[in-house]
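Intended use. Records like the one below are meant for learning the mapping from a protein sequence to its folded structure. Do not use them to infer anything beyond what is encoded.
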Amino acid sequence: MKYGYARVSTKDQVLNLQMDALQTAGCHKIFYEVAKGARADRPEWLKLLEEIQKGDTLIVWKLDRMGRSLHHLIKVVNDLIAKGVDIISIQDPLNTTSAQGRLIFNMFASLAEFEKDLIRERTMAGLKSARARGRMGGRPKGLSEKAKKAACTAEALYLQNELKTDDIAEQLGISKTTLYKYLRARNVQIGAPQQL
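Structure written out for the chain above:
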């Protein structure tokens, strides 16, 4: 069976282009949603992963519709291939229904891993060189002026107790981890039952 998956990040964007392409590609069932790619909780994506089986084909408009990052995308594709699912990306040169397509994907995955290792090696060499000259690496301690203002806003929204932490973080354009960091910096007691 051919499954399609379409996603846009905001309600302002439309799914028509992706949906039309997936229907033209012969998808029998299409899962679609409005969700940021960085979010792990994409309900339609999770439903698709539960339903798709060995021998099925997943078709997407572009690979970035599937993964939150290159590393995550590689894991998702490898998991689907291991499950016996073929993947076709309409706009990218990926079609794992053939041995050549699987080879190309594995080459890209290897290159991405190689690039990650190179960045790690350069970072470690740079830190070692800086330490040898007496300089310490890492981020400066405390919050920047911009972050202090955002922390003040985060505190006010959190204490109003009208929004969930996910909504506050989204409204401020920050992650939940950063939100909690800001709240701790403002000495806000975290974990009121209604905020969980």
